[in-house]
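Now for one protein, fold included:
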Amino acid sequence: MRFVARTALVVALLSATVTATPSASAAEHLTPRPPAGAPSAAVTETQPVAAWRLDDRNGSAYAAQWAGIFRGLPGPGVRFGDEGPDGRTPGTAHFDGGYFSYVNTDAGAVDTRQAFTAGVWVRPDDTGRDMTAINQAGISTVPNFSLGTTTDDAGKPAFAFTLPSADGGRTVVTGGTPQAGEWAYLAGVYDPANGTARLYVDGAQAAAGDAAVPEDTVLWNFVMGRDGNDRSKQWEGYLADVRLWDSVIDPAELAELGRRKPRLRAYWPLEGAEDWGDGQPVFPEVNHRAHFLAGGDAHVITDDALAGGGSVSLDGDGDFLESDIPPFDTSRSWAVSAKVRLHGTPDRDMAVLSQIGWQADAFTLRYRAADRTWQAVLAHADEPDATTTRIGAPARGGIQTLLLQYDERAGNVQLWIDGTLAGSAPYAAADAWEAARYLQAGRDSAADGVGAHYLDGDIDEVHTWAGVLSQGEINAL
């Protein structure tokens, strides 16, 4: 019998221009739960000379600095307290694009006549005009530097890194493609030793050009959200995590800074059940943001657990777990993982995890008996006969950690087994859709809303994330 219990929860939850095509993004922040959190690579983080996270509380009179000595004074067109690229609230500042859309520091933050790097997370609301994200003003009409967006003669938007040039004009290095409502990480690097200006988008170099900042350049105020010289090109959208360095930052560090870290949405350790008084066990999420409701006689075993002090055992005859809220948006980048152990060598297909829509499952992670493989199946629409993308890899038996993740910007889906990439396949953003129902463990819906392919095995350590994990983070699971 189909289990239909639901629990309503509130979840707290102009002289030189170089153009390049946009690079593939790194992924969408927040490290997985401890002790699983781990850096994606052994990258040393360089201390900036000035930095503002812009994660101040709504109504804050100042933008607090976390490096350097100058706090920022926001104009009335700036609102703090919104959700940043890491999914945290507060985590960013919104700039309304009007005359008072700025944060002014009343000081020069970095000597742009020497080597320097500037970085900022941006999310533009408008891409049809020139907008300044961060800027250090000069005495003349040319800024010491600026990072932001521009458009070419055909009206095509691009990111831009601007420096003064020796002839009194400016060097503009452009690349990448800004998208309204989408986060991107911008970094501009001036390397006088090599005479170059480089623009990075989402941690990858997007463009480079020759540059030489004149020694007689006069330094002036550092400003966020508008051009500090002519008080134009106001930013409309969000800015977060502004950093300035007095050196050329290594590309590996910029790649890590430009990677949107995955945000843990739910974690079920499955070590014990609660009784809510109706006789059905409930397996709580560790932070009580969601719960698994038990169907059949799913129960905890403490002897020979897959991890920790317990696991959930399912007998393949109507046992399953079902979350009481959707744990993540399957139309955006996401990841899901679980430890699993099959009982014997099954002779039928069985589902480990699935997220159900109204007529199809957005994804199913399952065991395929015909060739004894793990298989990921992703539907391209919420339709019973939708086209699917499939990835398969051998199932060796015993305890295995399975992780499936979809990278919206890279346009692919990956299946990882025990920390090793077992397979990947193209999966375009146009094929992804939001399954607004529930995550299931131990069965899928067989594309008709009716439970099927019940798991005969044990399951443990179920995680879901918004965003995709690096290999280091996957290995730490």
Q: What stands out?
A: The CA atoms of residues 420 and 475 lie 8 Å apart.
